[in-house]
UniProtKB/TrEMBL annotation:
This is Urease accessory protein UreE. The lineage of its organism: Bacteria, Pseudomonadati, Pseudomonadota, Alphaproteobacteria, Hyphomicrobiales. It holds the Pfam family UreE_N. Keywords: Chaperone, Cytoplasm, Nickel. Residues 1-67 form the UreE urease accessory N-terminal domain.
Length: 164
């Protein structure tokens, strides 16, 4: 089976793709999984760490071809506030509930959930049902495209110095 163990981040891929693969946000968060592209290229995604594949990322196949990731539209709420401070307050409420959110300049996108909708309406939010690609913000310790991880690291040198 063809394997894929590296990703070229969106914006960095130059060239022609052999195919695309269209996945919703949950399907795009992967480490290891058998996949089939939109036109039938079967491959095993086998990454070192779980990561969120983003719209426009290119999956490098072991035979030298590339499959470009497309984000499948999902049923979402587009949330708007009365003003910037109100929108920030709504964002804080959503973050307090650990909900994946796509943050934009004038709105926040979240998956549809009637309980969250009712809470947001009580807080004075303006809510519109939309179908759009969902590209939520990563966690506090996530690197671009990666799953959350610990912050431990080494640099190959020490950071000691004298305080003389």
């Amino acid at each position: 089976m063809i394997e894929a163990n590296s990703i070229i981040e969106r914006g960095a891929f130059i060239g022609e793709a052999a195919d695309t693969i269209t996945l919703d946000e949950a399907q795009r968060h992967r480490r290891r999984m058998a996949m089939v592209s939109d036109h039938g290229i079967a491959f095993l995604l086998d990454l070192a760490e779980a990561r969120l594949l983003r719209e426009g990322d290119a999956i490098t196949l072991s035979d030298g071809r590339y499959v470009v990731v497309r984000a499948k539209p999902e049923e979402l709420y587009a949330i708007e506030g009365r003003d910037a401070v109100h929108l920030l307050t709504l964002a804080w409420q959503l973050g307090n509930r650990h909900l994946p959110c796509q943050i934009e300049a004038k709105r926040i996108l979240v998956r549809r959930d009637h309980v969250i909708r009712d809470m947001l309406l009580e807080l004075g939010a303006h809510i519109h049902e939309v179908e759009a690609a969902f590209d939520p913000v990563g966690g506090a310790y996530a690197t671009p495209g990666a799953a959350p991880h610990s912050h431990g690291h080494t640099h190959g040198h020490d950071h000691t110095h004298s305080h003389g």
